[in-house]
Amino acid sequence: MDKKCAQLWQRLSAALKPQISADSFKRWFSAVELIDAKDKSLTFGVPNNIYQFWIESNYMSALQTAIVTTFGSPRSVKFCLPSGSGGQTAVEDSMPLEEVLPAPPGNSKPGATVPGLNPRNTFESFVVGPNNEIAHAASLAVAQAPARTYNPLFVYGGVGLGKTHLMQAIGQYVWAKKKNVKVIYLSSELFINEFIDAIQHSNLVKFRKRYRQADLLLIDDIQFLGGKERSQEEFFHTFNTLFDGHKQIVLSSDRPASEIANLEHRLVSRFEWGLTAELQPPAIETRLAILRKKARTMQIQLHDDVFQFLASRIRTNVRRLEGALMRVASFASLSGKELT
Fold this sequence. Notes:
About 45% of the residues lie in helices and about 15% in strands. It is α/β, with parallel strands linked by helices. The strands form two sheets. The chain has a five-stranded parallel beta sheet, sandwiched between helices.
């Protein structure tokens, strides 16, 4: 990578590292290079399509936050894969971060985007099991009839169990099915950062207009509002405006609202007005189904013993389970060895 791209990647990496674990950064981003940087797009070089798939599936929201922090605005993301000749790279299977979402026939929205949504996170790609069937059913009900069934919908569970997947599936379904809707998806950390920035630059009117005119507001990891008094005050009024206007609110957390430390009681109460749905660790049958479906999606061929081994060893975190599959597949791809 040239000097300019190397400097930009250094800044971008510094903004990305606080958002993910050191192990995850080392495993999935140490081999990444920034190949090209334009006003509206960034192109990254990755070793193979497994890296691309895993980053797109798990780290695009964090990457987008880092991009906004570094450049001041979102940019589309593309990936380059090795061409196999002289170390050159060629763009392949590029996926802009703000990709056009699939829409049903007769109701397409050409050129429209929802920043932060990963097109791979759909209801069709979500593996349903006894551990998540209520959260899945509630999410689908909300997507089919926003603000008419469960409002707000509060989904909680441990890390890597599918909360973000379900939230983004709701966003994509509503965007594809409904005309003239404003869908906003972001993390509570980004909401807090934008609120602070709006205060510093006297842009509160613009900030409030953006969020209080949403038809569907999806906020991930709402637990980070705990202890942020001014942000809680702001979100309290945003919540009331949307709820009173019959707009759908969907929140996710790693714990029930009542257990979020230093969260005002009036917010806890509002978060519990609708339906609270828990995601639990998957049983081994569900874990096997997740691995097999992911392998089919990635066109990875592994012996069933490999799936059985992974499913028996990783029991509580779907993201870790998929990550293990990606590491195994990546090793097989890079080494040219068949795994049994």
